[in-house]
Design brief:
about 350 residues; mainly alpha; Photosynthetic Reaction Center, subunit C, domain 2; 2 domains; two-stranded antiparallel ribbon; 10 helices; 4 strands
Length: about 350
């Protein structure tokens, strides 16, 4: 019996060692001093991971500018039912549609959004495919981001490729988490905690910080300013851990440390924080608005197979755009080649 237990122990130890080796980032690591010495203002990254990220975050080349024909897309008799981008010249419109096909559905082509009959004739005005309705709404969202949220995206902006990267469904999306199986006794519910998750940097913090903090315009500032309850934010420990979980997501999504935004001497102080913290604050508000105004409003449009386990629509977080780097596509300004993805002048 004791030999069997010893054998089981050896197997368990071996598996644990393998797991640690697979998850451990081996040295050498690179460090960059970004603040005063002695206060821990250092960015640390993995050069081997950096090479992979550089390869995965290359923006496609822009198509040549279109030759203006003098005819507006909304006046084209064949298309009809153009509710967005109608002010563009027909050649500019076709150029953008070609780019969107490459960015979102390169294998499926135009028929991913547009319906064709049995003879292959495309009815451009038909709205029966849910993908066309969604694409139209996403175009409105993209224009809004590039016009209203320059406090976060500045003039670099976003395009469909920023999130999709050549896939109909972006790689980094999230649904409401259905949680884990309930246990007995005092551990009858995990309360969304104590389950290591990659979403929150493989910690056991709350593994769904997105529903409370990125699906609504929530206040995530939970630092108390006094030792006693008076004058504090009145946030619970669970609220605080939810905020920490979201911060872990930020770190993973952008491939940065806490010191990318915060001064390690005083995390709560805005006056001592780096400018990136303000940019991140606007990003939180932007993502919340995108999820609530543009994506959740499409709930009834999506078929059941595109919904989550609790029946909600897929939503975005920081990783949807950033995908492991501090600026999506390392700051490639694709919008300058597709200015029609900004809101037109009134």
């Amino acid at each position: 019996m004791k030999y069997a237990l010893a054998f089981i122990g050896i197997i368990a130890g071996t598996l644990l060692t393998i797991a640690m080796m697979l998850s451990w980032e081996r040295p050498p690591m690179a460090s960059n001093q970004i603040g005063p010495r002695g206060v821990g203002m250092v960015e640390i990254n993995n050069p081997r991971m950096e090479a992979k990220l550089q390869k995965a975050n290359v923006a496609p080349e822009a198509d040549p500018p279109a030759e203006v024909s003098g005819v507006k897309a909304k006046d084209n008799e064949e298309w009809k039912n153009i509710q967005v981008l109608g002010e563009l010249d027909v050649n500019e419109f076709n150029r953008l549609m070609g780019a969107i096909t490459t960015w979102v559905a390169p294998e499926q082509g135009c028929l991913y959004c547009h319906k064709a009959d049995d003879q292959g004739n495309v009815n451009w005005a038909d709205d029966s495919l849910y993908t066309k309705v969604v694409a139209r709404r996403m175009l409105q969202m993209t224009r809004e981001i590039n016009t209203k949220w320059t406090s976060h995206v500045e003039q670099t902006g976003v395009t469909c490729y920023t999130c999709h990267r050549g896939n109909p469904v972006p790689a980094n999306i999230w649904f409401k988490n259905e949680g884990s199986p309930q246990a007995a006794g005092m551990a009858s519910s995990r309360q969304g905690q104590n389950l290591a998750s990659k979403v929150v940097g493989t910690t056991s913090l709350t593994y769904d910080p997105f529903t409370p903090l990125l699906a609504k315009d929530a206040n995530i500032r939970v630092n108390a300013t006094t030792a006693l309850p008076e004058g504090t934010t009145n946030a619970s420990i669970h609220d605080t851990e939810t905020t920490f979980a979201l911060m872990m997501h930020f770190s993973t999504a952008l491939g940065v440390n806490c010191t990318y935004c915060h001064n390690s001497r005083q995390f709560a102080s805005w006056a001592e924080s780096r400018p990136q913290r303000v940019t991140a604050w606007h990003g939180i508000r932007m993502v919340s608005e995108v999820n609530e105004t543009y994506i959740t409003s499409l709930q009834e449009v999506f078929p059941k197979n595109r919904l989550g386990p609790l029946g909600d629509v897929a939503k975005v977080n920081c990783a949807t755009c950033h995908q492991g780097v501090y600026k999506p596509l390392y700051g490639a300004a694709m919008v300058k080649d597709y200015e029609e993805l900004r809101q037109p002048n009134p």
